[in-house]
């Protein structure tokens, strides 16, 4: 089994003080993908930067205090890469990948966007460039007899089942028709599968992000935006999934919850 967890930590230094480290010590995951790290490696405590038993790849953003992704792997990768060949985005701390036996695992932090602003234009440029990368990555992996798994905060809820308050968000970034259509292209044209939805085809959610404002967490008024997106061969081997939602609001160490999937590679 290969067990992979993805979580947006909403600032790794802050998360480390709130409970990330005990979680990391207890997890059974073989690979952990982090997003919104918001720190350079040298700014992290040693037990977070390079915890015992893990091989770690940090990809900070050139803009200090923003974005940043990391991958923790119990097995030493045969190769690693930061960025996906984009002059605009390779220094933005939004993508990194590692090579493990038979599978490429990536951590993605797709821009959140904001309607009517440069941030939304940036998100659209990223989406266009990243879709092209996904197609090339899948084709290369297929030629090499490998699978691909891109985990992360995709910042798009695909359908009405993926956020509780969808009616009020139809004109907001994260649930725009064009964003949702782009995610459909990821699945229909680029040849990938939403693994958690594949494993849980019925019902709403499971949600992975809840605003700190109001009682969103207590009311489970959330969004499902933290995804495992895999090539179809790997998605077919997904055995089970869980969202590691905290029991109570004070026990949260991020506004996102870890999303874990076990893949049967045997």
UniProtKB/TrEMBL annotation:
Q: Which residues form the active site?
A: 109, 153, 256
Question: Where does the Endonuclease/exonuclease/phosphatase domain start and stop, copy by copy?
Answer: 6-256
Annotated Mg(2+) binding sites: 8, 36, 153, 155, 255-256
Instruction: Tell me its cofactors.
Output: Mg(2+); Mn(2+)
Under Pfam families, the record lists: Exo_endo_phos
Q: Which UniProt keywords apply?
A: Hydrolase, Magnesium, Manganese, Metal-binding
Q: Which domain of life is it from?
A: Bacteria
Residues spanning the signal sequence: none
Q: Where is this site: Transition state stabilizer?
A: 155
Q: Name one GO molecular function term.
A: double-stranded DNA 3'-5' DNA exonuclease activity
Which family is this protein grouped under?
Answer: Belongs to the DNA repair enzymes AP/ExoA family.
Spell out the protein name for this chain: Exodeoxyribonuclease-3
Origin organism of this chain? Actinacidiphila glaucinigra
